[in-house]
Design goal:
The protein has 11 helices and no strands. The chain is mainly α.
Length: 240
């Protein structure tokens, strides 16, 4: 008799659960679910990138020299110790991004609090990175303003061998510009490199962060196991 009662309770609970998942989503559930997805995704993305080698060893987001510096990489043999200088700069640039990524999650958290009901339903039925693109479109400039000072601070830190990223970059570019500005360099048509490293690094770091966020969003949309909270299971489960 007890077994029958337990079995009956289990069946009733399963029926109730099924009925609940089949219940039409409320507007509040949609918006809360999407905010939760962005919160979970941004926390995971920033956490992964803030680890040592989070940028440096990930070919998807590893930050390389600005395109304007291609002329340097193609002529490293003309700079004394050029190969080592280049690798040092790349390491320091990516270390600076990893250092700044530690503060990315709170920045995103402040940015995702505003979302209209219509935005919510559009995002729910949109592409796998719809929420990420919405966030990028509506908050990118604000995030740059918040993120840029952290990048600048990171660039001035003595991260490797007591030398800052800015110092290492300035050493590399100044040595190259000496070559490019010489008579031989002018004859060869070499261009000097004058890039604001903090602006380039801020953009690259945020691009990598948004890329990671889009991958986390797609995982939540497509993989039930990635829906780690009830609201995520409720909202995104209804969209399958």
């Amino acid at each position: 008799m007890v077994a029958v009662v337990i079995s009956g309770c289990a069946e009733m609970m399963q029926i109730a659960k099924t009925m609940d998942t089949q219940r039409p989503l409320t507007q509040t559930e949609v918006v809360n679910g999407l905010k939760e997805a962005l919160k979970v995704g941004s926390n995971k993305a920033s956490s992964k990138l803030s680890l040592t080698d989070g940028y440096y060893r990930d070919e998807m987001v590893k930050i390389l020299l600005p395109p304007e510096a291609a002329t340097i990489t193609q002529n490293l043999h003309r700079i004394p110790g050029g190969e080592k200088l280049l690798e040092d700069v790349l390491l320091r640039i990516n270390r600076a991004a990893e250092d700044a990524a530690k503060e990315a999650a709170p920045i995103f958290g402040n940015a995702i609090t505003k979302m209209t009901i219509q935005d919510g339903f559009n995002i729910l039925k949109g592409k796998d990175d719809e929420a990420t693109q919405f966030l990028k479109k509506n908050t990118y400039n604000q995030l740059v303003q918040l993120y840029s000072p952290k990048i600048k601070s990171s660039l001035d830190k003595k991260l490797v061998a007591g030398i800052s990223t800015n110092e290492s970059w300035n050493t590399l570019t100044s040595q190259w510009n000496n070559v490019a500005g010489s008579a031989v360099g002018r004859i060869a048509g070499f261009n000097q490199v004058n890039v604001k490293l903090d602006e380039y690094l801020t953009q690259s770091a945020l691009d990598g962060l948004f890329l990671k966020l889009s991958l986390e969003e797609a995982e939540i949309r497509n993989n039930p196991a990635a829906r780690v909270t009830e609201i995520l299971r409720r909202v995104f489960g209804s969209n399958n």
